[in-house]
Amino acid sequence: MNEYCISMDGKYSIRMAAQLSGLTPITIRTWENRYQVVTPERSGGNQRLYSDEDVKRLKQLSRAVDRGYKIGNICSLPAEELEEILLQSPIDRKSPKYLELSLKAVEDLNPYLLDEILESAVLEMGIVEAMEQLIMPMMVQIGEGWNRGEWQIYQEHMASELVKSFLLRKLQLTGKSEKAPVAVAAAPAGQSHSLGAAAAALTASIAGFRVIYIGGDTPAEDLVDIVKKSDALVLLLSIVFPGNPGALRRDLDTLVKSLPEGCRFLAGGSSARSFASIQSMEITDNLTLLRQRLQEIREERSIEY
Ligand code: B12
Question: Which of 25, 46, 73, 284 is deepest in the core (most CB within 10 A)?
């Protein structure tokens, strides 16, 4: 087992437990030694192995500490009492200003801190809300700042790469079921803006789809091919940048004509509305609506079968 892997019997390494609970491995070890918050099993090689229950407990404690409670005061509370505390504590009692903190981490070129801030935001807000209210607005603000000459291109690059790896890491952790309907997520030819596609991919995964994330710059004919090969129920196309609008319109026409009849074609991204006249391409303006729409599509499909 390597440090990130889940063991054969569904147990997590300390790295994975840290990632899932929003803590660091050092904090987990300290809490175990000082307060016996969990007692993980050990592998043959004496590595810690955490169960789902252990991770759940760590996550609860982490959320309570985020709200200002001292670990020493809450470590022995039963799960129900902890949940009570979490429900009663206003979410923003000690709520960090995530957007400001994230922008500062980008300004300071600190990808490790940015990653930690995004993890905390996801734990507190949920992944779709964190993408919608923090991660994508942060990217838009960086773009605007760069346009005004206030940010350097390398700051935008660092943020884009970190966000992309963050979203794809989360995607790997969700929606792997072989039986789930398939969604393909991409950005069209000539478009290297792939973060919207990654965000749409993760949203689909949360909505119960098995997602094939392709990324940016994907020709229409290839997308048709991928959809057919994977028997996808949904194609998600992210149109963030108009690029060459004539060529893009031709690609969208190709998709509408050539996608298999059962495949739903959903588009989004800040330039998607310019192509609203295209029939059979459904535009969804944000990720919350996308999640709802995808859940409806899944339900419709299970009624058909
Ligand atoms: C990061 C970035 C890049 C990175 C992309 C890295 C990557 N892997 O994605 C790089 C450096 C490659 C890049 C390149 C360029 N970029 Co750029 N880039 C950006 C930036 C800062 C963020 C883009 C982003 O991810 N935004 C977040 C998106 C996803 O938000 P959104 O579109 O509002 O989408 C929301 C919803 O619509 C929804 N959504 C998104 N996709 C989907 C899909 C579905 C199916 C659904 C339902 C919903 C959905 O999710 C979001 C949250 O609600 C933007 C700034 C901005 N304002 O966005 C500029 C921006 C888009 N880029 C711009 C430009 C000009 C370029 C370049 C031409 C620069 C150059 N001279 O080379 C090139 C073009 C490259 C190309 N051919 O594509 C301009 C576009 C201006 C315009 N509208 O004409 C912008 C707006 C910057 C600016 N203010 O000038 N860029």
Answer: 284
Nearest Cα neighbor of 226 from 267, 266, 255, 194 is 255
Q: Contact, 242 vs 271, CB < 8 A? A: yes
Residues 207-250 pLDDT 10s = 889 999 999 999 999 999 999 999 999 999 999 988 899 999 99
pLDDT tens for each residue of 277-296: 998 999 998 999 999 999 99
Q: 249 C-alpha to center of ligand 1: Å?
A: 18
Residue 267 Cβ contacting ligand 1 at under 6 Å: yes
> Could you tell me if the CB of 268 is within 6 A of ligand 1?
yes
Top mutation candidate among 148, 235, 240, 287 for ligand 1, by most atoms within 8 Å of CB: 240
Ligand 1 atom closest to Cα of residue 289 = 47
- For 108-138, write each residue's pLDDT tens digit: 999 999 999 998 888 888 888 899 989 999 9
**CB of 282 shorter than 6 A to ligand 1:** no
Confidence bin at 188 (pLDDT 50/70/90): very high
User: What domains lie within the chain, and their CATH numbers?
Assistant: 14-88 (1.10.1660.10), 98-171 (1.10.1240.10), 174-304 (3.40.50.280)
| 3-class state of residue 260 by DSSP | coil
**d(Cα 303, Cα 296) in Å, to the nearest integer?**
11
Name the residue among 125, 124, 119 with its Cα closest to residue 18: 119
Joined tokens for residue 27: 């904090």
Coil/strand/helix, residue 274: helix
